[in-house]
Amino acid sequence: NRGFYLRSGENWAFTFPGRTHSVASARPKLLIMSTGGTTSIDCTCNAMWAPSTFKTTDSRDTFSVAKDAQFAAVQFDISKITGPIQSAVLSLTCLSLKNPGVLEVFELNPPAFRNGGGALQIRPGLANAFSFDGVIGTNSTVLFAADFCDSSRNR
Q1: 17 contacts 27 by C-beta, under 8 angstroms
Q2: How many angstroms separate the CA atoms of 52 and 81, rounded?
Q3: Bridge-partner residues for 106, per DSSP?
Q4: DSSP 8-class letter at 13
Q5: CA 21 → CA 16, 18, 33, 37, 89, distances in Å?
Q6: Is 27 helix (H, G, I), strand (E, B) or coil?
Q7: CB of 65 within 8 A of CB of 6?
Q8: pLDDT tier at 2 (50, 70, 90 boundaries)?
Q9: In whole angstroms, what is the distance from residue 4 CA to residue 107 CA?
Q10: DSSP 30
């Protein structure tokens, strides 16, 4: 349940709707066929980044993938799937594409974060008390907090 890493060898960008796009039917979906039946799963997380910048881009509505410039990841919660998975189909709607090209899709392999090498009991941090870190800046022990998804702020 790691997700998919998207990259392209093309110089032009593929642009896709993200998990909050206004057209729900265009959002990324994963169709899972298992012994328990067929299930369509909505995207729970999508992110886009460019390795050449320190600036963030809010990619919840749309995200792009282009050669050496923009990479993306999409994830789906498959925890409720019952039975062994027989096949899966990733569905992405391309909103814009300058020329035909190839989108490369790989298994996302994010690092596993362990507290004490996995042998110690997990100790939740300060952010655990704040859903999606929403108002973490209101805590008296926090010196600075910023929402990196808020593209209206300038650095």
Answers
A1: yes
A2: 38
A3: 5
A4: P
A5: 9, 5, 25, 28, 20
A6: coil
A7: yes
A8: confident
A9: 5
A10: E
Residue with tokens 């298992």: 34
Tokens of 124: 């939740």
Strand-pairing partners, residue 33, are: 38, 87
Phi, psi for 114 (deg, rounded to 5):
-125, 140
58 in Cβ contact with 75 (< 8 Å):
no
Would the pLDDT of 155 be above 50? no
* Predicted confidence (pLDDT) per residue in 75-129, tens digit: 999 888 888 999 999 999 999 888 888 999 999 987 766 655 566 676 778 888 8
| Residue 81 exposure: Cα atoms within 13 Å on the Cβ side | 22
Cα–Cα distance between 99 and 39 in angstroms, integer? Answer: 33
SS3 state at 10: coil
Does pTM surpass 0.85? no
Contacts of residue 90, Cβ cutoff 8 Å, sequence gap at least 6:
4, 28, 29, 30, 74, 105
Between residues 21 and 126, the one the model is more confident about: 21
Q: Mean pLDDT, the chain, as a whole number? A: 84
